[in-house]
């Protein structure tokens, strides 16, 4: 049962192969098994590749199965259409386009499995890239908000500096009228005279201005600090909302790029392995000598070609013979007087009808 299934997978003519020896059947069963297992590997590889895209086992398995059927059909077609020739060069020339197609299929099949085999190494590369992307994202977002944050901070610092300058001015006026009262500066007269009162008045006026300035600026500072918190919250929100996008940077294309950053040699060996598997049925047919199946298939095709040539020749003879007979028949009819008189009569009737119609048309116009 399994042998018959693999023979079917090889694309061999069942009526011919089952009339061949057991060894010939085993050869084509081996070719069919290679075709089947290549398609099975294609199914697994495509299912894993699609799982990284859809993140759904059932969808990946279904579309991977469709891809496996496609590869199975292509391989079966490639193997079944190769014919054994008398010269190896002719066989190789015939198989060259099929070998190129097999190489393309092998590369497509091997890439997803390489991604699975080197999954841990790829995850390490992706982790490093994600960290770099996260740092770059934070820097980019910080630069985006930097202008507003710096402007807000500069305004707050300016308001605080204005209060500080006013406080220094008030403190200076305080020291001025105190030292005047103590007699250590100014008029150097001990006591609270007119100069002291004037200096005290200036201090009190400046102190009132300081209180007013402090209230006004502190209200603006409170608004700026609130705005600064809002800007910082927006910055953090921007970073937080973009982080899932970075965390999801592990799709098929990202993994292929990460695979290309790994050492090339192990990946090359795996691809060569699949290339050997994919081209093995073709290579086996090219290297194997012409067997019983090939001779019987060639005999069957030769019989069809001979029958087709005979039918074509017979149809051509039938056409030429029939044409000659009709030439003779029409040559005999040409000399028949009765047929001549009948056609002459009909021609005269037709000319009379045309003349009558023309006359009637002219009368209607007039």
From TrEMBL:
Keywords tagged on the record: Coiled coil, Membrane, Transmembrane, Transmembrane helix
Pfam families: DUF4407
Coiled-coil segments on the chain, per record: 196-230
Name of the protein in question: DUF4407 domain-containing protein
Ribonucleoprotein among keywords: no
Species for this entry: Flavobacterium akiainvivens
Domain of life, per lineage: Bacteria
Ranges that cross the membrane: 28-51, 57-74, 264-287
């Amino acid at each position: 049962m399994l042998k018959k299934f693999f023979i079917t997978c090889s694309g061999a003519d069942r009526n011919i192969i089952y009339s061949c020896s057991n060894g010939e059947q085993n050869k084509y069963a081996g070719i069919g098994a290679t075709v089947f297992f290549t398609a099975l590997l294609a199914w697994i590889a495509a299912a894993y590749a699609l799982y990284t895209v859809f993140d759904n086992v059932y969808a990946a398995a279904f579309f991977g199965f469709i891809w496996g059927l496609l590869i199975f059909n292509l391989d079966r077609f490639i193997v079944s259409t190769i014919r054994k020739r008398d010269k190896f060069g002719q066989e190789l020339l015939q198989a060259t386009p099929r070998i190129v197609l097999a190489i393309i299929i092998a590369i497509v099949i091997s890439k997803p499995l390489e991604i699975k085999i080197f999954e841990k190494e790829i995850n390490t590369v992706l982790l490093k890239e994600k960290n770099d992307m996260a740092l770059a994202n934070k820097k980019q977002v910080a630069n985006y908000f930097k202008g507003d944050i710096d402007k807000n901070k500069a305004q707050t610092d300016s308001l605080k500096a204005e209060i500080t300058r006013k406080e220094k001015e008030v403190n200076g006026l305080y020291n001025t009228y105190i030292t005047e009262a103590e007699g250590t500066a100014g008029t150097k007269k001990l006591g609270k005279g007119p100069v002291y009162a004037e200096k005290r008045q200036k201090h009190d006026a400046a102190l009132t201005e300081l209180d007013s300035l402090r209230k006004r600026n502190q209200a603006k500072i409170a608004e700026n600090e609130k705005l600064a918190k809002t800007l910082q919250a927006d910055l953090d929100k921007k970073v937080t909302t973009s982080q899932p996008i970075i965390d999801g940077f592990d799709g098929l294309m990202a993994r292929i790029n990460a695979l290309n950053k790994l050492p090339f040699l192990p990946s090359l060996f795996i691809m060569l392995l699949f290339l050997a598997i994919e081209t093995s049925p073709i290579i086996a047919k090219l290297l194997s000598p012409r067997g019983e199946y090939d001779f019987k298939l060639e005999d069957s095709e030769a019989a069809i070609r001979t029958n087709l040539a005979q039918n074509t020749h017979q149809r051509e003879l039938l056409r030429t013979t029939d044409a000659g007979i009709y030439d003779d028949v029409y040559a005999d009819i040409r000399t028949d007087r009765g047929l001549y008189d009948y056609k002459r009569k009909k021609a005269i009737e037709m000319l009379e009808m045309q003349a009558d119609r023309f006359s009637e048309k002219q009368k209607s116009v007039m």
